[in-house]
Here is the input.
Amino acid sequence: MKVIAIGRNYAAHAKELNNPLPSSPVIFLKPDTAVLKDNRPFYIPDFSSDIHYELEVVLKVCKEGKHIAEKFASSYFDEVGLGIDFTARDIQSIHKEKGLPWELAKAFDNSAAISHFIPKDKIEDLNNLQFELKINGETRQNGNTKNILFSFEKIISFVSQYITLKKGDLIFTGTPEGVGKVNQGDKLEAWIGEEQFLNFDIK
Ligand code: MG
Here is the structure.
């Protein structure tokens, strides 16, 4: 499986990092070795002194597809969860300045923390999904999918023009504003509505 991630999909987040709003989805990949599951702790790697959290809604792909039309795209994912797109912001800033790819900042081991998943049918309105990240009990990100620039269907359609989607692939759909640094000893907890999806420690 692979992890496909969308950058700059919430205007307020693009703005907080001084990035322009994209006219088509910004995408990058993480390998399967990036996945961190079951609320295992995240260990801050030696190569960065500025690891950021980015809470994101994550879609699980349920069948193979390429060149998917937007009107059929919703049938290509059947489960939804939350994830943290851990980002080495210091490395990313250097690579952005030099116009280099982001992999070292985005695709390192354990950089894609994921929750359990629930059937999307259990969610009342995917386009009005409130999700929240607390660190040490304090709210840091409070997002709503109604604010995304590119819909889930648009993302799936766009990505599948270039990259075949396979069953089990995960799509990180972008983070709302409020990103920041994690520190040793932090506890990260995340919710969709009232249901807790993530609860793990930074070590
Ligand atoms: Mg992200």
